[in-house]
Every structure is written in structure tokens, then in C-alpha cells.
Amino acid sequence: MKVEQIYTGCLAQGAYYIESEGEVAIIDPLREVKPYIEKAKKNNAKITYIFETHFHADFVSGHVTLSKETGAPIIFGPQANPSFDAIIAKDGQEFKLGNVTIVALHTPGHTMESTTYLLKDKDGKDYAIFSGDTLFLGDVGRPDLAQKAANMTQEQLAETLYDSLRTKIMPLADDVIVYPAHGAGSACGKNMMKETVDTLGNQKQMNYALREDMTKEEFVKEVTDGLLPPPQYFPLNVKMNKEGYDDIDEVLERGTQALSPDAFETAANETGAIVLDVRHQNEFAKGHVPRSIFIGLDGGFAPWVGALIADVKQPILLVAPEGRIEEAVTRLSRVGFDQTLGFLKGGFEAWKEAGKDYDTVDSVSADTFKKQLEADDKTPVYDVRKEGEYVSEHIADAQNTPLDFLNEYLTEFPEKETFYVHCAGGYRSMIAASILKSRGIHNLIDVAGGFKAIKEAAIPVTDYVCPTTLK
Hints:
Blueprint: E1 2-8, E2 13-20, E3 23-27, H1 34-42, E4 46-51, H2 63-70, E5 74-76, E6 87-88, E7 94-97, E8 100-106, E9 115-120, E10 126-132, H3 147-150, H4 154-169, E11 177-180, E12 198-199, H5 200-206, H6 216-224, H7 234-243, H8 248-255, E13 258-259, H9 261-271, E14 274-277, H10 281-286, E15 293-294, H11 301-308, E16 316-319, H12 325-334, E17 340-344, H13 347-353, E18 363-364, H14 366-375, E19 381-383, H15 387-392, E20 394-395, E21 399-400, E22 419-422, H16 427-438, E23 444-447, H17 450-456, E24 461-462
Parallel strand pairs: 3-4, 4-5, 5-6, 10-11, 13-17, 14-15, 14-16, 16-17, 18-23, 19-21, 19-22, 22-23
Antiparallel strand pairs: 1-2, 2-3, 7-8, 8-9, 9-10, 11-12, 20-24
Helix pairs in contact: 4-6, 8-12, 14-17
């Protein structure tokens, strides 16, 4: 038996490859399925089953394409109702894979079709669970996402999750390995550990949601406390996972079309496409296509695209580093953005050489910023980090306008007075700057290096806060 976790950091997502006696099961595959097919082929094995733990909200799974390419059936748990052919497993139903067995344990609560898959070894001993979003390391799946589909409140879903954990998962032996669908950084939970594999015994000791003496009322309160609104693209990803989607090869063919500067400009004007610049933030600051949005590939790319571009059907035109076009299109497709129409051939340099207008972002070092604050302690400063980061430590009198909800704060930025914007390291503040400039707000200066550089420059900070945010 071979079990491999295939972890994708930018999505904080774990897919799984299980092989026994030449037969393979894939659990929660990513959109691009060739790596799974090639791995099985290399091992002279055949993909026999594709298991889905639930209808994912934060990424588009590759189950439909993988089934089409391999002929392997897709398996969901009870109460799933996909629009395509699939096996809807019964609670406790067993699937033989070589000389091991995979058992479907219905564990509703995160969603009503959520199912944990229990792997038994050749001797019938419980070996591991693939818990999807039912159980994370250090947390459990949020119970607020499936309210509409289930016609239940988040409290009712939390109560259901409590029962699932205590009747299906906690009775399992302590040495059972836990393989979750997500780790730290995912918006599907609140307190996830940075580790991606653990034993159930350790989780029983340290995961607040698995406390043996915890009442259902206590569980509901703790699980629902502090939940932030989910990203707007989540329901759209659920719809795609439930109803199907374009083949990834079609998406790549469409999205990797090279467009000259003139053709690129024409496409932007005629289609209403967003120009998405995925280079490094420093390059974007030096020059970019006017009104383009910056979200760099070398950051939390896909989740930020999903959080800030509300509609997955939004046409997109790319400005990307040489050799990273296919990567950008692929990573967009992972969160359902399939309407990439092409990229700027020759990159931003070609745009400049063609004599096209371009814009820049004023950016200063933390040392220069410090001198400005010393000269004028009323200088407006906007901190686009999350509220928790801001509460922990921030520049005195800085306003917190979290990037996730930036559009809700547009009226709070000065119309004429120069203001400064920063985040933790420079990535998010450049995203914010690009959004503000696209809305016609140009009187801003970015603090390069963010809060890390601010502290290194010995700019005074405080940990006291009188909350000013709406979220």
C-alpha cells in the first residue's frame, strides 16, 4: 500500500494518491489531472476510483476531467446530487482497492454530503482517514457555507457536525492517521495547524473541537464564533463542482493566446476584461497597464483572485512574467476563473515599446516613511492587513481597511490629501494600491516592505486598539 499527500501550498489543499496492487484511488484531485495520470502510468497502475469528500467551495476539483480521461467512477457520499454520473455511496459502504479497503463514513455538518473515507490495510486494520473539511488539524470545517443548500442554520449544521465527529471519528483508534483536505491559510476553517498530517490521538488531545467533555452547546458556540464572511467565489465553485465545467485543456488553449499590445488593448476595450498583472509587486510599481489589477503569482494568488474578483465568469487578460503564462492560467482555473482570454505578448516591456500609456505606483522605504511621520504626525495611514493582525500591533492612528473588504472602505480614503498604505510585507498593499488606482484614487504612496520594514525602521507601534473596522 502506498499513500501520498499531494499538497498545494497556495490553496493550502491536500489531494491524495492511494495505490495497492496496481490499483489507484485519487481523493479530492486538483483541476489539472495529468500529474495523477502520469504517476499511475509510471507505477504501471490504473486509476480505479475518484473519491470526493464533498462539493468543495474554495477550489474546483478535477474529478470530472479525471473520470473522463481514465474511465474511473466518481464517488460522493450520501445526499450528494451531482449533475453528472457518479456513485452515491451509502454510509459504511466499502470499496476494494487492491488488497486494501476504503470505507465511506458519512460525516455531515460542514456540508450535508460531507464524507470521511476510512482506509483499512490488508489485514482489515484501520490505517487512516481522509477527512475532507470535516476534521482539520487543530480545527473543524466551518458550518456556515452550506446553509442555503441544506436549508439549515449554521447552528443546526454545527450540531450535525458535533454528532458526526463523536459518532464516526472520535471512536476510531488513536493511531489512525488524519489526512485533511486543507491546512493553515485556508478560508475553510479558523485555527488550522501548519502541519498537514497528524494522528487522531494527538488531535483528540489538542484540537478544541474534539474535547471529550465538550457539550453540544459549547461546540456550537466555539465553532461559530468569529467566522468571517466567506469569499464571494465560494458558491460559484460549489456550482462548478456539482454541475461540471470546461476541460482544463480548453481553458489553457484559450488563456495562453499571445496578443500584441494593440490586440491586447482592443480585447480589453471590447470585452470588458480585467487586466490582471501577476508579476512581482516591485515590477508593477515601476510600470503597469493603466487600471490593471495587481495580484502576484508569488503570493496567495488564487485565493486573493477569488476574494477580490467576485464573478468567476469575468473575462481576464494577463500580464505575466515570461515562461509563467500557463502557470497563471492553470492557477486561475483552480478557483473557477476559466475566462482568461490571452496574455500580453512580450510582457509590459512590449507595451512600453509600443508607445502605450502606462501608470506607476509611488513607493517609499520605511525609513523615508518614518521621516514623513516625524515631520507630520497627522499623516493619513491605512493598514490593509486583517483585523487580527492590526489588533495585535499597528501604527498609532493608522486606520484598518482590510484588503478582503477594501471596496467597502473606498469613501474613507482622502480625495486629495496624500496618504500611505501598507500591509505586512508589501504584497497586499500593492494589491490595494492597484485597486484604488483602478477606482481613480491616485493620491497614495505604498510603504515598501510593509509592517516588517516599519518595525525594523523603529517606527513607534501600539497594541492597543479601539476598533474602527466594519468587519
